[in-house]
């Protein structure tokens, strides 16, 4: 694998995914509602998760996506027409690592869960995506520069330190994009965020995101993502998280284009459990394919290059398994709808600030198991 630490692609990220686990949930009535946000008249049911996160069950046909002007006549697709095909990518070490989980949310059939959040700093969605200058974001991981139609990977989940009083973000992430020129792109992603000014706390949470030019839209913000799952709550906490030199946990993420509808789906796990999709209509450039991918860590914000947050485990890639964060079993979807290992001639390591964050190939490198990388670092927490 070639290493190119100087590569800088000014593409703003966002992210997501998770496997459902056995967390405690309970229903609350309108009289029990303690949220500062009034119950919406469209709410079918309200569910409290772990005494902290409140989800409203909304009619699937009345979700925020259908307020988008380009989706007024969109017909909802409840499941993919097909999934990418593959040969087995099971590797003994990675398959032995347990999954991090989201709480199971039992919204009624025909509804989807949407997280209320009255803890976050109220700011226009546009400001999330305007942190795009070179000194306000850093990346470390693996980049790919060629045509692809999706990807899958296993993301090691940690809870990196991000200062409460900052507007910084630290993500463990998978992203695919169609880049026209520097700073002009469509993109989508999924993974784990720690983003205090957005979520109101310092927990690792599962997000998906859509990049529209210079604006990043997490989950249901901007009315771009169409959710079909009634049991997966975007923005929910990922638990348990990995511990340095201790137990490790991961999530399986899949993003791919439906070959018939050309919608871009997000799914997770070996069972290809589909969560939802970004409709083809919302994209400027990604109506058919992508030409860029990133797997690894991403930090952004006003202090990303000065008093910067941790990335991954908060330790450098050279420390290896159990100490440095990883993304493993990385594969892309080719034009025949097959999962394949990325070509090493179009793939390279990236680390935009080696004094704070690093990346390295590990384990099998390039093989039938896919591509693997360690990444991360302490940032300003030294």
UniProtKB/TrEMBL annotation:
The keyword Zinc does not apply. InterPro entries: Glutamic_endopeptidase, Neprosin, Neprosin_propep. Keywords: Signal. This is Neprosin PEP catalytic domain-containing protein. It comes from Triticum aestivum. Residues 129-382 form the Neprosin PEP catalytic domain. Residues 1-22 form the signal peptide. PANTHER family: OS05G0341100 PROTEIN, PROTEIN, PUTATIVE (DUF239)-RELATED-RELATED.
């Amino acid at each position: 694998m070639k290493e190119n630490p100087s590569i800088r692609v000014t593409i703003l990220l966002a992210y997501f995914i998770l496997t459902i686990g056995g967390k405690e949930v309970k229903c609350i009535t309108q009289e029990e509602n303690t949220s500062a946000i009034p119950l919406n008249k469209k709410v079918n049911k309200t569910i409290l998760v772990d005494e902290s996160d409140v989800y409203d069950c909304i009619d699937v046909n009345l979700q925020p996506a259908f307020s988008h002007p380009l989706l007024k006549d969109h017909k909802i697709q409840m499941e993919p027409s097909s999934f990418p095909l593959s040969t087995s990518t099971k590797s003994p070490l990675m398959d032995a690592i347990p999954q991090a989980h989201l709480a199971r949310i039992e919204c009624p059939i025909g509804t989807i869960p949407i997280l209320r959040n009255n803890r976050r700093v109220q700011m226009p969605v546009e400001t999330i995506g305007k942190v795009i200058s070179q000194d306000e974001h850093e990346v470390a991981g693996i980049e790919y520069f060629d045509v692809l139609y999706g990807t899958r990977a296993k993301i090691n989940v940690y809870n990196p330190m991000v200062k409460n009083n900052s507007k910084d973000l630290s993500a463990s992430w998978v992203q695919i994009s169609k880049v026209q020129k520097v700073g002009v792109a469509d993109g989508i992603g999924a993974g784990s965020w720690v983003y205090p000014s957005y979520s109101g706390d310092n927990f690792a949470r599962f997000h998906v995101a859509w990049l529209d030019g210079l604006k990043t839209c997490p989950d249901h913000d901007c009315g771009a993502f169409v959710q079909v799952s009634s049991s997966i709550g975007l923005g929910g906490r990922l638990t348990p998280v990995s511990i340095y030199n201790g137990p490790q946990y991961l999530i399986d993420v899949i993003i791919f284009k439906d070959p018939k509808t050309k919608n871009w789906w997000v799914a997770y796990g070996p069972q290809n459990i589909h969560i939802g999709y970004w409709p083809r209509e919302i994209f400027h450039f990604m109506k058919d394919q992508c030409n860029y991918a990133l797997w690894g860590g991403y930090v952004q914000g006003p202090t990303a290059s000065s008093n910067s947050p941790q990335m991954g485990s908060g330790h450098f890639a050279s420390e290896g398994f159990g100490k440095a964060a990883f993304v493993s079993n990385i594969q892309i979807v080719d034009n025949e709808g097959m999962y394949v290992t990325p070509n090493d001639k179009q793939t390279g390591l990236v680390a935009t600030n080696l004094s704070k964050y690093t990346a390295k190939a590990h384990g099998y490198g390039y093989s039938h198991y896919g591509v693997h990388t360690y990444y991360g670092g302490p940032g300003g927490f030294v």
